[in-house]
Amino acid sequence: MECSLADETGIDRRIAQRLRSLRAGRGWPLDELARRSTVSRATLSRLENAEVSPTASVLGKLCAAYGLTMSRLMHMVEGEFAPLVRREAQTVWSDPEVGFRRRSISPPAQMLAGEALECTLDAAVTITYDAPPRPGLEHHLVLVEGQLTVTVDGRAHELRPGDCLRYQLFGPSAFATPAETGARYFLFVV
What we know:
Keywords: DNA-binding. The protein is α+β, with helices and mostly antiparallel strands. The protein has five helices and ten strands; from the N terminus they run H-H-H-H-H-E-E-E-E-E-E-E-E-E-E.
C-alpha cells in the first residue's frame, strides 16, 4: 500500500524538521547552507517550514551538503529500528513533478550502513546529482523493468531488464529514461 496524502504530508513535515535540525546542529545560517548546497535561501526556508515538498534534486543537493545519503535522511525521519518491515509499512517518497518514486525496502536503522531501495522513474525523466552524499558511496543497481541510462563519472551505461551496474560515486551522476518507457529498479547502497 502506498502512502496516503496524510502520510505524505506527515513525512514532508518530518523531513522539514530533520532538515532544520541538521542545519541547526552544524550552526549554519540559511545563507551558509544555500552556499554549500546551491539551493536558494528562499527554497530552503520554505522546505524547513514544510511549505513545499522537496524534489529529488533538491534533496540530493542537501544530502550532499550534509554528507548523508538520501536514504539515511529518510531513515532519520522514520521510526525506531525493527528488523522486519512489511511492504505495506515501507516508506514511499515521491517527486510527482519529476516522476520519481522511491520505496525504502530496508528497515530503518541509523546504526546500519547497507540500504535497499525500490525506485521507479516515469518515461522521459532525467534526474541529475551534482555530487554524491558521501564520496566513494557504493551502489548496486539492478534494472527490473524498462530501460535506464545511468551516467557515472561521465560514462553512460545503458541498462536492460536483468542488468546490474555496480559503481562507486565520486562525482556527478544521472539517471535517465527514454521517451517511450520508464524504469523500475532496485538500488542497494553500501
